[in-house]
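Hi P.,

Sorry for the delay on this. The queue was packed all week, but I finally got your sequence through. Input first:
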Amino acid sequence: MKSAAQRIVVLLCMVLAPGVCAQVPGIEPERPYSFGGYVKALTQAGIPNNGGTTWDHLTHLRLNFEYRWSEALSLNVGMRNRLLWGDNIDVPGFGKLLSDDPGYVDLSSNWLENDHALGNTTFDRFHLNWQYSILEMRVGRQRINWGMATLWNPNDLFNVYSIFDFDYEERPGTDAILISHNPGYASRAEAVWEFGDDWDEVSLAGRYRFNLSGLDIQILSGKKKTDLVVGAGFSGSLWGAGINGEVSHFDPYKHEWDGIEQEPSTVSTLETDYHLSIRGNPAWKISILHTSNPQDPDNILAYLNQPLTAKTISFSRWTGYGETSFDIKTLSRQTFGVAVYDDGSWYVTATNIYSLADDWQMMLVWQHYDGPSGSFFGKDPSDILSGNLRWSF
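Then the structure:
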């Protein structure tokens, strides 16, 4: 129950300018829009075994905007603004790689491109969202995340990401229409139409997710470009440990597409993680990935930078990963991870995240690619050292 004084303040706010009302704590009217983002400064040192050290720098301004006409209708826009300079600017085709937009609508453009620097703006979110009762529809560039595991996601038909890319937490978006329906508690049905210039570019898929005896389960099927796909996934716990799994089978209806020979392939993953509620909050994760018919990438640079699909998550038939993490201090967490491939390649990473203040964060990352001389990573062993400072607003 408001006091008489509070009622008077509310009455005055109805008369006075909105700017005055906004200064009164606790009674500021809800705005129809929200705005935020962050600024990041990243410096990377590439240290190949054969060759000199390269230095690259990135300043990244992220802007997120949402406007709500009503509880049922809203607009979401997310924009990446990046300024890069350093040694990789001289790599042939680097500017084109930065500006390339795999979506149906080209929402990426280089506004600065010379011998010293590259500037790019990309809209990776731009969608309308409409919701009525248990029905929801989203149209435009959006993130469609169908993964149930936390590392590799064969079920994530639209927005698979690379484990090597630590600097893009939002993940890419897809130009599509998504319709979802919640028939009951812990169940959800979704249908997606990803836009394309012709039938081979179009993707159509559906997913149904439900809970059975405490286990989250999903089944999916559809068409991902020239592949017919069926898949399933689950997520739950066993003896206090989290356990997740996914499997997808891809069966192409064309023998060749985009200059690459197409063959059937089954991609599956199984992972488990365990957290201890003791000092330091230690945690472990173990994951294994199997690809029945992996595709050979052209080179390491292309593999680390090309857009991945659920069919090309790894270049080897078997891939394993182990990770441990713990708090060094209350505001500092350390993670160590190792990935091994069946050709002998291996990848080691160490990450430290330190919270400097409420809106300030520092991240230090070491990545090492290596293996026997005949292995994929062994052809060009290298280290990458990265330092990232972030301010959120």
